[in-house]
């Protein structure tokens, strides 16, 4: 049966008796009200192209398909009021077997640019209600696309702004429910003036799936509040619950967003995703809630036109210089900010103790806001990823919980209750980091055993809430990092690994913990004499960090009788501390590298392996720091060592004094200095105020930063006899200049510059009676400001690009 209804506005289909018709097709112009509940034999009811609030009651045997343009309304101009969606007739569908609704809706409001704020209008889109009176027995599918915008989005922010309201969606089914909702946020002077619709769904014997997308097409929002908050989502029942939230923006919106108060590169153009509540309804066994990943908003930047700048002619021997040149750059679109909403998974709403689910065994969450919790007695598996802001896991009846952590970052951390064994499987593309300095990573005083497997590192902060934890086991290729908070666990804890991942832990000061390493790197910190076995694995870069200034003794039951398997000696003591260590007296450990982590430290370490390296990588600049580095051999005149200064994480540093030598105090002939810095500060400088290295003949400098040595003394030695080098080669391939303020070498006969970087020597001292050859074979410039007041040369030869006494012309000699 085909019915064509050309009535505009609303049309009510007359009450008639229909029998023997299997399919009824209604093609409408306006809104349709049809009660087909009494039609017998009907298996399909199709409403096509209706406009307005349909009211459909289907026969219990009929599958209902509706294509509808939702009702909408505006308040009169001059009132600025917003019609509530409840006052606008809703599209409703009741009864039948399956329901498939495709709906579109739109509303345009009008702001004004004048005062008072009683002008303009508001608008709203009507609701969708399926199964509000009689739930369909089959699956319900709803696809809704709604758009709201302001036709005068250039109105002054805070003055006469009109509001718009998206419609709500409610669905109830005896089987499954699938809802796909898209809300397009068009032009608004202030996106706060658009209010999202909510989604409420209840399912029976089938799955419950909800997809909610907010799409920002706003090209006008600027310095006002540009944050749109998506509507709350409530999902109850079904066999499984799956909610997916996304947030997108059109290319035009991103290109037009000028940032905060017009400041390039800044923005608040952000979508906060809707809060999600998932209740089991007595049937759901698994819940999956995926919210879009956290993104910080970035404003668009406009195109830049090239400019040649101003050129100034140079003097004799100097090249012309150009200033004020501008390089052309294309416009760069902004980035839509995205924030997660709160997530609640439970049996019912109410207090945690009385509302726990008895059916939900598996929960998967991607991104969640503060106040989120999972409350299920039946929970056995929890999977988390993305960015969180604190998650409580309540009333877990099982004593063991499987937790899959896939690159989760949650600075507030996780709280569990009553879990004795936590089996963590790490995955994703990066480490999982839980907690912060004063916020527990995983808090549960009942926890006794933590098993970590998978492929990524589990990084925990503030383990003080894990006082019952006595055993940690790591396997697969997973890693573990306690961020220095291992002391929060029970004293005497066992930490063991069979993993190829990195293990980083700071053991209790009582020295009663045990550790067993594997094939991955082990970085273990002890602060007092260790009484139990700490055994590094087979990796060649295992590091033992000494963080106390007390005595680390030898023999069974003491540090150097119990600690083995380490090749890097780390020092991380309180600022102002002075420590002296003999690497040859440290049991079976063979230390070939020294790592000075703490600042303001005076550290003397002797009997390191020949060719050992040195790293000085404190988080802050080292003031008053002195490092004496001596190897166990007596071949310093031909030895080579690598020195790493600063880190890519913490930046460049200043070392007050560094002395390098062999067992007899003879300097190391070749130093390879790597000058590190953060990416943002690349091209800066690491500084050594005084470098003592008698016999230094080759100085290789690399890294993103340059190097400044205020004083380099080749005439001083750690031993009894000076062994000044007869020549010094400086090879600079770093990201900036190598500068030596004062170079003292009583045997200097040649000075050679190589590499791509510039080199500057303030003055060269102790050259009286010498014949000096200065050669620059590199591609950089070499500058020597002075040959020193105490120097009277017999002869001087310059070759290559060398400037002497700031005289550029001397480079041609």
Could you characterize what this model shows?
With 813 residues, the protein is mainly beta. The chain has 2 helices and 69 strands. The protein has a 36-stranded parallel sheet that branches. Strands 2-4-6-9-12-15-18-21-24-29-31-33-35-38 form a 14-stranded parallel sheet, with no helix packed on it.
Give me the oligomer status: single chain
Could you give the distance between the termini?
Answer: 105 Å
**Could you tell me the number of beta strands?**
69
Strand content: 35-45%
Query: Helicity range of the residues?
Result: under 10%
What is the C-alpha radius of gyration, as a whole number of Å?
A: 37 Å
Sheet with the most strands, sense and barrel status: 36 strands, parallel
Question: How many helical stretches?
Answer: 2
Average pLDDT rating: 89
Poorly predicted sequence stretches spanning 5 or more consecutive residues: 808-813
Q: Estimate the global geometry from the Cα principal axes.
A: elongated
Class from helix and strand fractions:
mainly beta
Topology diagram in text:
Layout: E1 2-5, E2 10-12, E3 23-28, E4 31-35, E5 44-51, E6 55-58, E7 63-69, E8 72-74, E9 91-95, E10 99-109, E11 123-125, E12 128-130, E13 140-150, E14 164-165, E15 169-172, E16 177-185, E17 194-195, E18 199-203, E19 208-216, E20 227-229, E21 233-237, E22 240-249, H1 251-256, E23 270-272, E24 276-279, E25 286-290, E26 310-312, E27 321-323, E28 337-339, E29 343-346, E30 362-366, E31 372-375, E32 381-388, E33 391-394, E34 400-410, E35 414-416, E36 421-427, E37 432-434, E38 442-443, E39 449-454, E40 457-460, E41 471-474, E42 479-481, E43 494-497, E44 503-506, E45 514-516, E46 522-526, E47 534-535, E48 543-546, H2 559-562, E49 563-564, E50 568-571, E51 578-582, E52 593-596, E53 602-608, E54 613-616, E55 626-631, E56 640-645, E57 654-661, E58 670-675, E59 685-692, E60 698-702, E61 706-713, E62 727-732, E63 738-744, E64 750-755, E65 759-765, E66 771-776, E67 782-786, E68 795-800, E69 802-804
Parallel strand pairs: 1-3, 2-4, 3-5, 4-6, 5-7, 6-9, 7-10, 9-12, 10-13, 11-14, 12-15, 13-16, 14-17, 15-18, 16-19, 18-21, 19-22, 20-23, 21-24, 22-25, 23-28, 24-29, 25-30, 29-31, 30-32, 31-33, 32-34, 33-35, 34-36, 34-37, 35-38, 36-39, 37-40, 39-41, 40-42, 41-43, 42-44, 43-45, 44-46, 45-47, ...
Antiparallel strand pairs: 8-11, 26-27
């Amino acid at each position: 049966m085909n019915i064509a209804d050309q009535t505009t506005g609303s049309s009510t289909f007359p009450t008639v008796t229909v029998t023997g018709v299997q399919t009824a097709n209604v093609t409408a112009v306006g809104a349709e009200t049809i009660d087909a509940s009494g039609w017998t034999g009907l298996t399909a009811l199709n409403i096509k192209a209706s406009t307005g609030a349909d009211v459909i009651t289907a026969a219990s045997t009929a599958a209902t398909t509706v294509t509808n343009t939702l009702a909408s309304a505006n308040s009169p101009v001059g009132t600025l009021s917003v019609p509530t969606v409840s006052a606008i007739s809703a599209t409703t569908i009741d009864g039948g077997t399956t329901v498939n609704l495709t709906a579109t809706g739109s509303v345009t409001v009008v702001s004004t640019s004048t005062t008072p704020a009683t002008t303009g209008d508001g608008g709203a889109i009507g609701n969708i209600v399926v199964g509000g009176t009689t739930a369909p027995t089959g699956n319900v599918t709803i696809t809704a696309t709604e758009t709201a915008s302001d036709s005068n989005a250039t109105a002054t922010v805070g003055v006469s702004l009109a509001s718009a309201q998206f419609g709500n969606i409610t669905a109830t089914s005896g089987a499954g429910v699938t809802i796909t909702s898209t809300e397009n946020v068009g032009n608004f002077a202030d996106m706060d003036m658009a209010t999202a619709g909510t989604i409420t769904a209840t399912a029976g014997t089938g799955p419950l799936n909800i997809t909610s997308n907010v799409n920002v097409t706003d090209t006008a929002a600027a310095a006002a509040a540009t944050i749109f908050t998506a509507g709350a989502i409530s999902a109850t029942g079904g066999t499984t619950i799956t909610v997916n939230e996304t947030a997108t923006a059109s290319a035009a919106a991103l290109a037009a967003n000028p940032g905060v108060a017009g400041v390039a590169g800044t923005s608040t153009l952000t979508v906060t995703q809707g809060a999600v509540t998932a209740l089991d309804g007595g049937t759901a066994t698994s819940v999956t809630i995926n919210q879009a990943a956290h993104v910080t908003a970035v404003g668009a930047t406009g195109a830049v036109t090239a400019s040649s700048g101003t050129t100034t002619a140079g003097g004799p021997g100097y090249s012309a210089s150009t200033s004020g040149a501008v390089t052309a750059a294309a416009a760069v679109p902004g980035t839509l900010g995205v924030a997660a909403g709160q997530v609640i998974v439970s049996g019912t709403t109410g207090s945690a103790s009385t509302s726990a689910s008895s059916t939900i065994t598996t929960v998967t969450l991607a991104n969640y806001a503060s106040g989120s919790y999972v409350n299920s007695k039946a929970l056995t598996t929890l999977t988390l990823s993305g960015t969180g802001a604190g998650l409580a896991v309540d009333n877990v009846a099982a004593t063991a919980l499987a937790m899959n952590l896939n690159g989760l970052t949650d600075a507030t951390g996780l709280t569990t209750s009553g879990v004795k064994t936590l089996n963590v499987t790490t995955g994703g593309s990066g480490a999982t980091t839980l907690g912060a300095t004063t916020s527990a990573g995983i808090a549960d005083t009942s926890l006794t055993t933590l098993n970590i497997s998978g492929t990524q590192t589990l990084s925990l902060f503030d383990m003080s809430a894990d006082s019952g934890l006595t055993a940690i086991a790591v396997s697969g290729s997973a890693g573990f990092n306690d961020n220095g908070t291992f002391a929060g666990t029970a004293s005497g804890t066992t930490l063991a690994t069979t993993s190829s991942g990195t293990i980083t832990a700071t053991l209790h000061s009582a020295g009663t913990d045990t550790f067993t390493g594997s094939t991955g790197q082990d970085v273990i910190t002890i602060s007092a004499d260790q009484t139990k076995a700490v055994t590094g694995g087979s990796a060649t870069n295992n590091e033992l960090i000494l963080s106390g200034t007390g005595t680390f003794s030898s023999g069974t039951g003491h540090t150097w009788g119990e600690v083995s398997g380490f090749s890097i000696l780390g020092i991380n003591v309180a600022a102002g501390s002075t420590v002296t260590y003999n690497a040859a007296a440290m049991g079976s450990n063979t230390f070939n590298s020294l790592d000075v982590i703490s600042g303001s430290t005076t550290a003397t370490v002797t009997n390191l392996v020949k060719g050992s390296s040195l790293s000085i990588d404190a988080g802050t600049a080292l003031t008053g720091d002195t490092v004496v580095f001596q190897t166990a051999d007596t071949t310093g005149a031909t030895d080579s060592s690598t020195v790493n200064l600063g880190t890519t994480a913490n930046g460049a540093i200043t070392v007050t004094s560094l002395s390098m030598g062999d067992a007899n105090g003879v300097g190391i002939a070749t130093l390879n200095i790597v000058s590190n810095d953060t990416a943002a500060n690349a091209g800066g400088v690491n500084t050594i105020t005084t470098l003592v290295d008698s016999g230094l003949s080759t100085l290789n400098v690399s890294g993103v930063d340059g190097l400044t040595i205020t004083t380099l003394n080749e005439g001083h030695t750690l031993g009894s006899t000076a062994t000044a080098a007869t020549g010094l080669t400086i090879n600079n391939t770093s990201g900036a200049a190598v500068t030596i303020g004062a170079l003292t070498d009583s045997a200097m006969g040649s000075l050679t510059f190589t590499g791509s970087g510039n080199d500057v020597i303030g003055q060269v001292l102790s050259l009286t009676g010498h014949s000096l050859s200065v050669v620059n074979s590199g591609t950089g410039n070499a500058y020597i400001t002075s040959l020193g007041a105490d120097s009277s040369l017999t002869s001087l030869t310059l070759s290559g690009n060398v400037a002497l006494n700031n005289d550029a012309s001397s480079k041609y000699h």
